[in-house]
Design a protein that fits this description.
The complex is a heterodimer of chains A (153) and B (731). With 153 residues, chain A is an alpha+beta fold. Chain A has five helices and five strands. Chain A is globular and about 45 Å long. Chain A starts with a strand and ends with a helix. Chain B is an alpha+beta fold. Chain B has three domains: 215 residues, Aldehyde Oxidoreductase, domain 4 (2-Layer Sandwich), CATH 3.30.365.10; 153 residues, Aldehyde oxidase/xanthine dehydrogenase, molybdopterin binding domain (Aldehyde Oxidoreductase, domain 4); 328 residues, Aldehyde oxidase/xanthine dehydrogenase, molybdopterin binding domain (Aldehyde Oxidoreductase, domain 4), CATH 3.30.365.10. Classes of the chains: A alpha+beta (153), B alpha+beta (731). The interface between A and B is large, with 55 and 63 residues.
Chain lengths: 153, 731
């Protein structure tokens, strides 16, 4: 079946089974590989994208459910929050292997939009679903605080 | 780390008999594995004198001034791409902005790990073995640039300076590297490139220049194996046996073949592969396969039975690894403390599950794209399966989304599967093999299950007089090409490392090993033997200290008279943490541990909050590290932070259980990784040193477990002998 969606500001047609997770439509059909496969069951957050402005796990979002939606991926996200996060990420050299970082930034951008000055507890609550096996958590936390500062300035 | 040398004679010899490492390497091993001094560049003239901007196997300069460094290692997150670039940039006096990294092709003649003799990454050796080599590569290129500029400008080479990527002469002449790249790369490389003295360093030991891959990893731009797309490529997933060692008896693939997007179903030695037009379709079709397994040779035991058997063995004498007159010494002991520890199987669970792309043209060529951690071995195995000479096989190494040892597999398992699948379809289309998370958690190659029994005795003065340690578990290297180099007199070095050379004066010391035979595939896991030996040794130290009313830091220092570097990190960590001086909040307790692995010394002090409900949260870790010259201090700190997090997650709640041969865990819900809310604040302090550099990737991991356990011991009196902590209701 074909589905009309807007991806990163462009109208796109997805020709895929309605039960195919958006993750695989993005990666395998549209060849947009910034969104990562980590677990496939919504437990690691590596596949996080923005659906109509909110962070969702693309492995748990199905092609059949996104007709008419606006989807933003790591390749194009350019909200104030995402820009500040990238600046902070570069200042602190947050990534190690980097495989989870697309999801971390998409999730953190969502957090900062709702909570511009998050506490450590806010960060724990919002980011606990995003696994980093390199355990860069220490710098992700610092990076989110730094991005909040940048946004405030 | 000379273990791979054996591999050269066994695995590699038939395929590449002409290879001679000795001819170009002058490596001295010494007591510190990976210490490399005084070798010369392997190239002089071989690649140079082409005038195409190739200065040597490690450095290429483009007309626009871009300096490309060829990284012979795999960067799986530990940051060696940045590290190796900084070594070249240092001696080249380049500007950081002009530096670019690329993974080197598989070629042990040029790109051997100098600690091993073949190409590969592990044992925290990337920086130590490359430290002189990559600096010499940069220094040689700089000398060639200066020589070319001198000729072109008709001035004396000695009058030319190079700074931040600019070649200059007092007359006012200036040029970039690109201006002379072609000319300079045709120069004869210097016999012995002049290296800088430490006071001239701009990169080594400095911060302020970022990781070379941060930007691309922050925009989803880094290409991992999972992201490779080749024209006409099919996605393959494999149904593997539910019990290790089982094989396919019969398969009914009718339903699977009829499913959407399915292109083929093939049998390979490892199981049954489904090939489809996309990953989702391949995974869906795999669940429609009906396979009957032949379990004749399968491992069918349960981990609880294996552990019980190991406990029995731990009461019986084993093969002696370190001999000491402990029987007599125990007679003098006033207090004897003993403990039997149990460590579970552990999966590596890197974020990027295993994968590999294989493009085979039968009888002609094979190209592989993957995060290859043991290129020489992977190359050799792929060549054999494809029935092609090694020169017809090309490996494209890519950034890996973690590994922690998983991608350094003596059977090259995931590459092996990919090539078998490509071969089974006659190479008609490129194949990307994809493992799911379930495949990863259930797929074996675990850190082995071990049981340790430790007995130690103190005299009247509270000094250790006897230490008897017995370890029971599988050998990681038995039956692999690494066996000859790493098993000596029946002792697998990786089973006992961290327990065979204690930093403490313990009087009589005996260490014994029982190597068991179990059909569960095992593998090195970040810091290898030290993942369990450090826990046993360091928690026993605190039990001894506590039983005799001694402060654990003082107790260690008093037994460290011949271990100055362990003493150095311990003192630094204690000082920075305010050990004994700082008032801790209610419910927060402190524990310490010290451990040397891969030549790097690390001490950690953990501040652990034991909550009212008995669960624990590690609030803060003060870490001190001595790894000789600190090449990239911020990346060293990052590796300490990550190493601590990796170790902590496992210690808290990771275990692989097997029941009647079947792995019980399968996903992040039952193999729960460390998460944001579990992560302590980490503060890293580096001991200033002029010693040769050692590595940072693994040594941060071993001390965290015992440091946390020791905090719990002092805070609550509770001893934790069987891991993970979740067995005891602590998480």
């Amino acid at each position: 079946m074909t589905i009309q969606v807007t991806i990163n500001g462009e109208a796109r047609t997805l020709d895929a089974s309605p039960d195919m997770p958006l993750l695989w439509a993005l990666r395998d059909e549209l060849k947009m590989t910034g969104t990562k496969f980590g677990c496939g069951v919504g437990l690691c957050g590596a596949c996080t994208v923005h659906l109509n402005g909110s962070a969702v796990r693309s492995c748990q979002t199905y092609v059949g459910d996104v007709e008419g939606a606006e989807i933003t991926t790591i390749e194009a996200v350019d909200t104030r929050e995402a820009v500040a996060l990238r600046t902070a990420w570069a200042e602190l050299d947050v990534p190690q292997c980097g495989y989870c970082q697309s999801g971390q930034i998409m999730q953190a951008a969502d957090l900062l939009k709702a909570t511009p000055k998050p506490t450590d507890a806010d960060i724990d609550a919002a980011m606990d679903g995003n696994v980093c096996r390199c355990a860069t958590y220490h710098r992700i936390r610092a990076g989110i605080h730094r991005a909040a500062e940048i946004l405030e300035a | 780390m000379k273990f791979l040398k054996n591999m050269m004679q066994t695995e590699l010899a038939p395929h590449d008999p002409g290879m001679s490492r000795r001819s170009f390497l002058k490596v001295t091993g010494g007591a510190t594995a990976g210490l490399v001094v005084g070798f010369t560049l392997p190239v002089s003239g071989a690649n140079a004198a082409q005038g195409d901007g190739t200065f040597n196997p490690f450095v290429r300069i483009a007309p626009d001034g871009t300096v490309t460094v060829l990284n012979k290692h795999l960067d799986m997150g530990q940051g060696n791409m940045t590290g190796l670039l900084s070594l070249v940039a240092e001696e080249l006096d380049a500007d950081w902005g002009q530096m670019k990294g690329e993974f080197a092709p598989s070629d042990p003649k040029k790109y051997a790990n100098l600690s091993w003799g073949v190409q590969g990454t592990g044992g925290s050796s990337a920086i130590p073995n490359s430290f002189i080599q990559y600096r010499e590569a940069g220094a040689a290129a700089k000398a060639m640039l200066i020589a070319a500029a001198a000729q072109s400008w008709k001035v004396k080479a000695s009058e030319i300076t190079v700074e931040n990527g600019v070649i200059a002469h007092p007359s006012g002449k200036k040029a970039g590297f690109g201006d002379f790249a072609a000319l300079a790369s045709a120069e004869t490389p210097p016999e012995k490139p002049q290296l800088k003295s430490p006071d001239q360093f701009n990169f080594i030991g400095k911060t302020g220049y970022g990781r070379v891959d941060t930007t691309s990893k922050s925009v989803g731009g880094t290409i991992y194996t999972q992201d490779i797309d080749r024209p006409g490529m099919l996605i393959a997933v494999v149904a593997r046996p539910p019990k290790f060692g089982a094989t396919v008896k019969s398969v009914d693939d009718k339903a699977a073949r009829e499913m959407k997007g399915v292109k083929d179903v093939v049998r390979i030695p490892q199981g049954v592969a489904v090939l489809a037009d996309n990953t989702w379709n391949a995974m869906q079709a795999r669940s429609a396969l009906e396979i009957t397994w032949d379990e004749t040779n399968a491992e069918t035991r349960s981990t609880k039975d294996i552990a019980a058997h190991y406990r029995e063995l731990s009461e019986k004498p084993g093969t002696v690894a370190v001999e000491g007159e402990t029987d007599k010494a125990f007679e003098k002991a006033k207090t004897v403390v003993e403990a039997t520890y149990e460590f579970p199987y552990l999966a590596h669970a890197p974020m990027e599950p295993m994968n590999a792309v294989a493009e085979l043209k039968p009888g002609q060529s094979l190209e592989i794209w993957t995060g290859s951690q043991l290129q020489t071995l992977d190359h050799n195995i792929a060549s054999k399966i494809a029935e092609l000479p090694m020169e017809k096989v090309k490996i494209h190494t890519l950034y890996a989304g973690g590994s922690f040892g998983r991608r350094a597999n003596p059977t090259s398992d995931f590459i092996n599967e990919a090539v078998h699948i490509a071969k089974a379809i006659g190479g008609r289309q490129p194949v990307k093999l994809v493992w799911s998370r379930e495949d990863d958690i259930k797929g074996g190659y675990y850190r082995p299950l071990y049981v340790h029994k430790v007995r130690a005795g103190l005299n009247d003065a509270g000094e250790i007089v006897a230490w008897h340690h017995r370890i029971v578990g599988q050998s990681i290297v038995k039956g692999t090409p690494f066996e000859g180099g790493l098993v000596k007199n029946g002792i697998d070095h990786t089973s006992v490392e961290g327990a065979s050379h204690l930093p403490y004066d313990v009087g009589a010391h005996q260490l014994e090993l029982h190597t068991t035979d179990v059909g569960v595939p095992v593998l090195w896991w970040r810091s290898v033997g030290s993942t369990h030996t450090a826990y046993a040794v360091e928690t026993m130290m605190d039990r001894l200290a506590k039983s005799s009313g001694q402060d654990p830091v003082e107790f260690r220092l008093k037994h460290m008279t011949s271990s100055p570097r362990e003493m150095g990190v311990l003192k630094l960590a204690a000082e920075k943490a305010g050990w004994g001086a700082k008032k801790l909040p209610d419910g927060v307790h402190r524990g310490v541990a010290v451990h040397k692995s891969f030549g790097t010394y690390v001490a950690q002090i953990a501040d652990v909050h034991v909550r009212d409900d008995g669960t624990v949260k590690v609030e803060r870790v003060t870490c001190a590290v001595d790894l000789g010259v600190a090449v990239n201090p911020d990346q060293i700190a990052a590796q300490m932070e990550g190493g601590i997090g990796y170790g902590l997650g496992a210690i808290l709640r990771n275990r692989i259980d097997i029941e009647n041969g079947e792995v019980q865990q399968s996903q992040f819900y039952d193999y729960e990784p460390l998460r944001m809310s579990d992560m302590p604040f980490v503060e890293t302090h580096i001991v200033p040193s002029t010693e040769a550099p050692t590595g940072a990737g693994e040594p941060g991991t071993p001390p965290i477990g015992p440091a946390v356990a020791n905090a719990i011991l002092w805070g609550t009196g509770k001893t934790i002998d069987a891991l993970p902590f979740s067995r005891h209701g602590l998480t």
